[in-house]
């Protein structure tokens, strides 16, 4: 077991960029929503840089890029609804688990550690994606970006995890790919482990102050 797991009683995982590479499906949905509005598609490379603050922010960034200016609330509403419709119809066919993710989740469960999923993605998309990978039973609690009044980098979702499992925050570990996961973990009083391969807007995640970085989640177990 990774030394950071010493004394840990609950592990909370981020989803996008940590367990799954979801950008190929996100990009198809973003592009379809842009095209519906008569705008040019953005492509996967640019969408990859816009993920991490939930679906509304994702579409705001995509529209700002396509329009060359901040979108009006009407454009944003139409673009966001378009994205939700397209993504909801096909949220996982191009999405892949990162190497080591399944081993880590299986290994932690085999050791009896409760797991939580804390993503900024809308809650409605979590189950279809996890079910696609047969991972829905691994998590005792799943929170989306719209499950609570605040999302990461707020500590609120992580504090909810700790209280749900009746464990002090110091006995919880947050595992994520972005500065939002690390900030949320720090503010909640969790230990924080980061992976370097996800979506952190080009900034090395090591520079965001995690307790440790692992190249593969398999190193956890
Ligand atoms: O939907 C997003 O913005 C990314 O969600 P994440 O919190 O799982 O990385
Ligand atoms: Mg992430």
Can you offer a commentary on this structure?
By secondary structure, the protein is of the alpha/beta class. The protein has two domains: 3-21 and 95-220, Rossmann fold (3-Layer(aba) Sandwich); 23-89, Orthogonal Bundle (DNA polymerase, domain 1), CATH 1.10.150. It contains eight helices and eight strands. The chain has helices spanning 23-36, 44-48, 55-67, 73-89, 101-110, 126-132, 156-164, 179-188, and strands spanning 10-13, 20-21, 96-97, 115-118, 141-143, 172-176, 191-194, 212-213. A six-stranded parallel sheet has the order 5-4-1-6-7-8, sandwiched between helices. Strands 2-3 form a two-stranded antiparallel sheet. Helix 6 links the parallel strand 4 and strand 5 (141-143). Helix 3 crosses helix 4 (73-89). The longest helix is centred in the middle third of the chain and has 17 residues, at 73-89. The chain is globular and about 55 Å long. The mean pLDDT is 97. The chain binds 2-phosphoglycolic acid and magnesium ion (MG). The site of magnesium ion has 10 residues, from loops. The site of 2-phosphoglycolic acid (PGA) has 13 residues, from helix 3. Pathway: Organic acid metabolism; glycolate biosynthesis; glycolate from 2-phosphoglycolate: step 1/1. GO terms for molecular function: metal ion binding; phosphoglycolate phosphatase activity. Its cofactor is Mg(2+). It is an enzyme of class 3 (hydrolase). Its EC number is 3.1.3.18.
């Amino acid at each position: 077991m990774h030394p950071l797991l010493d004394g840990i009683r609950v592990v909370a995982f981020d989803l996008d960029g940590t367990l799954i590479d979801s950008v190929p499906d996100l990009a198809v949905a973003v592009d379809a929503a842009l095209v519906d509005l008569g705008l040019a598609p953005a492509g996967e490379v640019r969408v990859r840089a816009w993920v991490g603050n939930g679906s509304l922010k994702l579409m705001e960034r995509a529209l700002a890029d396509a329009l060359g200016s901040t979108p009006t609330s009407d454009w944003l509403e139409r673009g966001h609804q378009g994205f939700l419709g397209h993504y909801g119809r096909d949220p996982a066919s191009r999405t892949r688990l990162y190497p080591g993710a399944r081993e880590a989740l299986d290994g932690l469960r085999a050791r009896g550690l409760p797991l939580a999923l804390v993503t900024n993605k809308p809650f409605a998309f979590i189950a279809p994606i996890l079910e696609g990978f047969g991972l829905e039973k691994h998590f005792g609690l799943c929170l989306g970006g719209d499950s609570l009044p605040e999302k990461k980098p707020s500590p609120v979702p992580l504090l909810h995890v700790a209280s749900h499992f009746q464990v002090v925050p110091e006995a919880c570990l947050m595992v994520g790919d972005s500065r939002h996961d690390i900030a949320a973990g720090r503010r909640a009083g969790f230990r924080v482990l980061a992976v370097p391969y996800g979506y952190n807007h080009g900034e090395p995640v090591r520079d965001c102050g995690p307790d440790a970085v692992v190249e593969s989640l398999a190193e956890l177990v």
